[in-house]
């Protein structure tokens, strides 16, 4: 079953948000999902302490360190349809070891020059590890916190750079939406949030479209869930 | 040499360990580093000394350096090292 590593050495690139959003959509579709929260800030482990009825299993960094990451991934992939590894915003060996067991690496990227440079470090790591293990590790860049209404000049520029560098990119973006922040603050899934939250329906539509593309890309044999 | 099975029942084969070593090496070559906290040695608890006096010793450098190294290795302060040696010699 697919192991997906969310990697970008730059903090604040929406690794945890994209990880949790996709996990929620998969769980909603009846898939079993485990998230290994290796970020020392523990945003997803903190989310799990809330009242959400979601079936997502979260393993905190108390049980996952550099020494154990490979073994925990191997154990969880036997029990869950998807294993997600949310990594912290740093260039650490834990990220490298997680990628070693990854079936897919998702590189979230905000449309900024700093994020793009750091994302290229994540891609460089994937390439190095491919040489080590002698197989291809599929990866794709996900543009995050983009405006749902207009594409800014910088977003266009970054998208152009990705295209020029032939970096595979998701067609869907993860938009900037209040609901994506509130799900962490309230420790609930998008579907469990108060319906009055501004733009909630649009956030869910965005999440579903992204999850559909994600499942198609990660596992071509598996029909899109949404 | 494979590891012992861990809590998850997994044993790393020699091939796994070698793969991990090469992956670490590849990651380090592009600036990835270990973020695990370094192990902190336990604090040394000092005995209550009572009245003290200062002793200055002129000793051959080979003896003083060997003595200091031995104290460090055994986590003795210098007076504790002298005490331990005297106990061993049956003086104390």
How do you describe this structure in short?
Chain A has helices at residues 15-28, 43-48, 69-79, 93-100, 113-133, 153-164, 178-186, 200-218, and strands at residues 3-6, 33-37, 57-59, 82-86, 104-110, 139-146, 174-175. Chain A has 226 residues and is of the alpha/beta class.
Keywords:
heterodimer; A: 226 residues; alpha/beta; Rossmann fold; seven-stranded parallel beta sheet; 7 strands; disordered C terminus; B: 92 residues; mainly alpha; 2 domains; 3 helices; 45% helix
Mean pLDDT of chain A: 90
Biggest protein-protein contact in the assembly: A-B, 28 and 22 residues
Q: What is the number of independent domains of chain B?
A: 2
How far apart the termini of chain A lie comes to 19 Å
Indicate the radius of gyration of chain B in whole angstroms.
Answer: 23 Å
Basic shape of chain B: elongated
- Total of DSSP H or I helical runs spanning 4+ residues of chain B: 3
| Count of discrete structural domains of chain A | 1
Would you identify the regions of chain A where 5 or more consecutive residues have pLDDT less than 50? Answer: 222-226
Largest sheet of chain B: none
Structural class of chain A: alpha/beta
Show the helix and strand layout.
The complex is a heterodimer of chains A (226) and B (92).
Chain A: E1 3-6, H1 15-28, E2 33-37, H2 43-48, E3 57-59, H3 69-79, E4 82-86, H4 93-100, E5 104-110, H5 113-133, E6 139-146, H6 153-164, E7 174-175, H7 178-186, H8 200-218
Parallel strand pairs in A: 1-4, 1-5, 2-3, 2-4, 5-6, 6-7
Chain B: H1 14-29, H2 61-73, H3 78-89
Question: Could you walk me through the main structural features you see in this protein, from its secondary elements to its overall organization?
Answer:
The complex is a heterodimer of chains A (226) and B (92). Chain A is α/β, with parallel strands linked by helices. Chain A has a single domain, classed as 3-Layer(aba) Sandwich (Rossmann fold), CATH 3.40.50.300. Helix content of chain A is 44%, strand content 15%. Chain A has helices spanning 15-28, 43-48, 69-79, 93-100, 113-133, 153-164, 178-186, 200-218, and strands spanning 3-6, 33-37, 57-59, 82-86, 104-110, 139-146, 174-175. Chain A has a seven-stranded parallel β-sheet, with helices on both faces. In chain A, α6 (153-164) links the parallel β6 and β7. The longest helix of chain A has 21 residues, at 113-133. Chain A is globular. Chain A starts with a strand and ends in an 8-residue tail after the last helix. With 92 residues, chain B is mainly α. Chain B folds into two domains: 1-40, no CATH class; 44-92. The chains are: A alpha/beta (226), B mainly alpha (92). The interface between A and B is medium-sized, with 28 and 22 residues.
């Amino acid at each position: 079953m697919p192991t997906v590593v969310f990697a970008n050495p730059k903090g604040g690139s929406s690794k945890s948000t994209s990880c949790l959003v996709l996990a929620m959509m998969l769980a909603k579709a009846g898939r079993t999902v485990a998230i290994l929260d290796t970020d020392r800030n523990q945003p997803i482990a903190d989310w799990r302490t809330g009242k959400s009825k979601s079936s997502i299993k979260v393993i905190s960094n108390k049980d996952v360190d550099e020494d154990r990451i490979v073994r925990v991934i191997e154990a969880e992939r036997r029990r869950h349809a998807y294993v997600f590894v949310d990594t912290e915003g740093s260039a650490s060996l834990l990220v490298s070891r997680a990628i070693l067991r990854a079936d897919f690496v998702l590189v979230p990227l905000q449309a900024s020059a700093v994020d793009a440079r750091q994302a290229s470090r994540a891609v460089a790591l994937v390439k190095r590890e491919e040489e080590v293990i002698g197989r291809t590790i599929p990866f794709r860049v996900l543009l995050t916190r983009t405006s749902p209404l207009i594409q800014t000049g910088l977003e266009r520029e970054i998208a152009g750079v990705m295209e020029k560098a032939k970096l595979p990119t998701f067609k869907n973006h993860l938009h900037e939406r209040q609901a994506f922040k509130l799900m962490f603050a309230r420790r609930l899934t998008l579907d469990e949030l108060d319906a009055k939250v501004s733009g909630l329906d649009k956030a869910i539509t965005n999440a579903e479209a992204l999850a559909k593309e994600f499942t198609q890309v990660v596992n071509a044999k598996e029909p899109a869930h949404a | 040499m494979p590891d012992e099975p861990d809590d998850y029942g997994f044993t790393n084969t020699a091939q796994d360990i070698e793969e991990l070593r090469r992956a670490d090496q590849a990651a380090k070559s592009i600036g990835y580093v270990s973020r695990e906290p370094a192990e902190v040695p336990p604090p040394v608890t000092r005995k209550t000394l009572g009245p003290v006096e200062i002793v200055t010793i002129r000793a051959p450098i080979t003896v003083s350096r060997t003595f200091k190294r031995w104290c460090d290795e055994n986590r003795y302060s210098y007076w504790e090292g002298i005490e331990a040696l005297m106990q061993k010699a049956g003086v104390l």
